[in-house]
Amino acid sequence: MSDAADLTEDAFLGGQLRLRQPTRGHRAGHDAILLAAATAARPGDRVVDLGAGVGAAGLALARRVGGLALTLVERAPDLAGLARDNAHANDLQADVAVLDVAADAAAFAAAGLGPDSVDVVLMNPPFHDAARHRASPDQARATAHMATGTTLETWTHAARRMLKSGGALTLIWRADGLSEVLAALARGFGSLVLQPVHGQAGKPAIRILVRAVKGGRAPTQILASVVLNEATGVPNEDARRVLEGKGELALSWPWPAP
Asked: What is the mean pLDDT of the chain?
């Protein structure tokens, strides 16, 4: 566990969620909150946050939707410990599994995450392209941010194995890597719904939020974009409400039968 001096306590969802996280390495931010706001879930659903870090996305979802059976999967023991502490400090129920996303089916089953057992998976995998981004000298930060050629396939494979037929995966990725997302989801997923995220109005999208249904066959849909800031730099009011936990994204609306 990290020393208390190496941690900060940060407010998310307008103060509805407070998370302790390391001062160095990967730190939770807008991506995790947007992912949570884009994830469709119902009370009683079994939900897994893959690569949960300190639990930001999964716990933000649990704050919005009560009664989830939530599991936070994180391979780093210190971050997993913080995720467990954060769930307790926010009075949210969550199991924590110290497990690498790349682990085999037997390891997932031993953690209680067997095949065809989960309703919803959400994930924010490392997505920076190593060919275009210099890796951070901080190893934890580099691991959390830099994708390899097999990152998406590995993560979507783990999600596909756990999900029940008709269950949904929601993920966030860099917008210029959309073709990689579509290729990774081509096997076993369908009924895709996409929602671009723009950092500023009038500028290209910086992120893409995607929901995919295991075994889905409905046509792909592209929803209206999320715009974080107006062209003047002023925060967009709708996006501000989502980030403060006062709203949700259209991607989170219940999906039709696949």
From this structure: 91
Q: Which residues of 98-108 are buried (b: 16+ CB within 10 A; e: fewer)?
A: bbebebeeeeb
pLDDT tens, residue by residue, 100-145: 999 999 999 999 999 999 999 999 999 755 555 454 454 544 444 4
Domain extent at residue 118? 4-252
CATH number, residue 130: 3.40.50.150
**Residue 17 · residue 57 · CB < 8 Å:** no
Residue 63 lies in a domain: yes
pLDDT band for position 89 (cuts 50, 70, 90): very high
Measured distance CA(94)–CA(53) in Å, rounded: 13
Domain membership flag for residue 126: yes
What's the number of domains the chain is made of?
Answer: 1
Strand partners, 147: 129
Distance CA 61, CA 70 (A): 9
